[in-house]
Amino acid sequence: MDLLMIRHGEIPSNINKVYAGRSPEHLTEKGVRQARQVSEKLKSLKIDALYSSPIQRALQTTQILSEDIGVDLEVDDAFRELEMGPWEGLSENDVAKEYPGEWSIWNSDPTKLR
């Protein structure tokens, strides 16, 4: 069995270079094009299942794939994005300035960040 992990297409937070976390964001026009490009590449493969995070941007990406390649989509909370808390909407520079201790942990061993 092969498993492909596909990241969602571009969202406004990617353009603005800020953490999105679980915030609801739709794909940009470029993000929709990116999803369609991926679906074109997937058409040559035998895809048995599609799973998606319930986060809007991931769901929108996977819905495009599902429609284009004709495979049903299943939503699974196990693929949900990290909760970024007060970091959501902040840039890396802002997080480093406002939360220097947590930023250091995030960059050295993110599994220890609580």
Protein model, in words:
The chain starts with 11 loop residues before the first helix and ends in a 6-residue tail after the last helix. It has a two-stranded parallel ribbon with strand order 1-2. It has helices at residues 12-16, 29-42, 56-69, 92-98, 100-108, and strands at 50-52, 73-75. 43% of the residues lie in helices and 5% in strands.
Which structural category fits the helices and strands?
mainly alpha
Terminal CA distance reads 35 Å
Tell me the series of helices and strands, N- to C-terminal.
HHEHEHH
Instruction: Give the overall silhouette.
Output: elongated
State the total count of DSSP E strands.
2
Question: Topology, pairings included?
Answer:
Layout: H1 12-16, H2 29-42, E1 50-52, H3 56-69, E2 73-75, H4 92-98, H5 100-108
Parallel strand pairs: 1-2
Helix pairs in contact: 2-3, 4-5
Short overview:
With 114 residues, the protein is mainly α.
Which properties best describe this structure?
mainly alpha; Rossmann fold; 5 helices; 43% helix; 114 residues; elongated
